[in-house]
Amino acid sequence: MRSLRSVLALAAAATLLAACATNSSTAAPGGASSAAPGTGGDKIGFIFVGPKDDYGYNQAAYEGSQAVAKAYPDLEVLTAENVPEDDNAARVMEGMIRKGAKIIFATSYGHKDPALKVAAANPDVVVLQQGNIVDGAVPPNFGTYFGTVYEPVYLAGIVAGKTTRTNKLGYVYAFPISQTLDNINAFQLGAASVNPAAKTYVVNTSSWCDPAKQAEAAKSLLAQGVDVISQHQDCTATVIRATEAAGRFTVGYHADATALAPKGWLTGSQWNWGPLYTTMVKTVLAGSFTGSPYNANFRVGLKTGDNPFVQSPYGPAVTDETKKLVETAMAKISKDGSPFLGPVVDQDGKERVPAGTVPDYKTIESIDYFVTGVVGKIPAS
């Protein structure tokens, strides 16, 4: 973690907690919050790349924003949905700042560059960006954060590996960025830890949420004999419904979608951002942001004890034996392990993590390869 010099006017918690209208407002698609500008006090802004009811990433982040609104009823929470990962994101954030926002959460991976731009232009506003690793000099009022979600994805892989009857698992993913590669690899490593014959077949959609592409991806995997499908998509309903309709098994991601797959749901990796968001806001309001762990590249997970995710409920097909395997693996990771505990070998047989080595967060979030057992190639950039 890098300590950042103290420059923030937010140190005066009394000022930040000044009275203002109490509500949480939601924007029209692609625009800034529809809330009327407040006449006093400060506000907190959240931007989301997709809709708040996507059964996925944006729904989990939105629910986290509402936890902040509940924890801080004297502060107005502004939200904006469907904010693209381009200059429009900067425009929406600037609009929130004009309405009094002193803390901004930019919750999508592609919001990083606009968030950096807004932070540099507004030194009295704390800008927190979800999901990236940043290097070099950054504005002192800017920080990144994320959870080590590949840990519960590994555990879900154990469930998939024990459940599959064809030894063919499927993974629908958006872009070949480190986060998706981490999750695919962790899923395969978890499955292989209990079923060495299991392989993970991948399909890339080049979109965070394109139901038509998702439907085609699911159809392709099902046609290959895949009987357990997971995904790294922002909106998850299309893939889950297609898998359920085919009588196959689902491993969820981002949010609890058991209602969509009453028969085939196995488990999932589910974000629970509320406690972490609330703690981060508390840190800023107390004037402790500078030098806190929330500045550059803060990561939380099973080892830190304040992880922002939970294992989704188990479905009816998951046996007690499998549940015990998951519990054992979770305890090991929480103590001194990692889904990427070496040796880790890539598709070409090259050792990427030596035996007995636990790679650090930055190394994991720089992964640019598929591990042995993943079927498919990373698209050329």
Could you explain how this protein is built, in words?
This is BMP family ABC transporter substrate-binding protein. Residues 1-27 form the signal peptide. InterPro entries: ABC-Purine-Binding, Peripla_BP_I, PnrA-like, TAT_signal. Residues 43-306 form the ABC transporter substrate-binding protein PnrA-like domain. Keywords: Signal. This protein starts with 12 loop residues before the first helix and ends in a 6-residue tail after the last strand. The strands form 3 sheets. A 7-stranded parallel beta sheet has the order 1-3-2-4-5-6-12, with helices on both faces. The chain is α/β, with parallel strands linked by helices. Helix 6 (178-194) links the parallel strand 7 and strand 8 (199-204). The chain has 2 domains: 9-147 and 272-300, Rossmann fold; 150-263 and 310-375, Rossmann fold (3-Layer(aba) Sandwich). Mean pLDDT is 86; it is low at 1-40. The chain has 11 helices and 16 strands.
- Work out the strand percent: 15-25%
CATH uppermost class of the largest domain: Alpha Beta
Question: How many β-strand stretches?
Answer: 16
Give the SSE order as H and E letters: HEEHEHEHEEHEHEHEHEEHEEHEEHE
Largest sheet: 7 strands, parallel
Can you identify the CATH superfamily of the largest domain?
Response regulator
> What would you call the structural class?
alpha/beta
What is the average per-residue confidence, as pLDDT, rounded to a whole number?
A: 86
C-alpha Rg, in Å? Answer: 21 Å
Q: Give me the number of helical elements.
A: 11
- When the domains are counted, the total is 2
What global shape is seen? globular
Poorly predicted runs of 5 or more residues: 1-40
Distance between the ends: 30 Å
CATH topology of the largest domain: Rossmann fold
Percentage of residues assigned to helices: 25-40%
Pfam family, one: Bmp
Domain ABC transporter substrate-binding protein PnrA-like: 43-306
Organism: Paractinoplanes rishiriensis
Keywords: Signal
